[in-house]
Please model this.
Amino acid sequence: MKKIVAALFCGIVLFAAGPLRRAPGFCLIDTSGQWQDLADNRGKIVLVEFMQTSCPHCAAFSTVLNGLKLKYADKLAILGIANPPVDTVQTMMQFVKDHKLVYPLLLDQGQVAYSYVRSPSVDLPTVYLIDGSGMIRNSWQNGPLTKDIFEGAGLAREIDKLLTGAPTAAPAKK
Model:
């Protein structure tokens, strides 16, 4: 009986993880006027964050992301992405200044967000973990079940797993 339960559990975990998918490519302009192309980060771990400058959770998460960028330096690229009409170049520039971002904040017109986010509703911030070969390894939306990712050390543990070649956690249910 224990073997059957273990086999069922393993099957559920594998099914929940789903297949990896290639991260959709993009090239967007940041608040300093520089073009940021996802392909330029091949070989690095990349965090793509969808956010709004008026979101208090996004403001708090920027502190976590700043710490991760400082900790992992050139091994990690972080690309924050905001969308109009809520965000403008001016609101984004103010956010970068107020939160002393050490990673670029990019302006999307919705195309990139649409190619990543595959659900009708999304909680912000939402972050995608992309490995060095350009595959999405996991994604998380801010919420009670993902508190360790957005406020604790959970995201650092997932990055460490990718750096050491260990499997990452199964994608969180959305």
Summary: Helices lie at 2-17, 56-72, 89-99, 111-116, 147-151, 154-164. The longest strand covers residues 76-82.
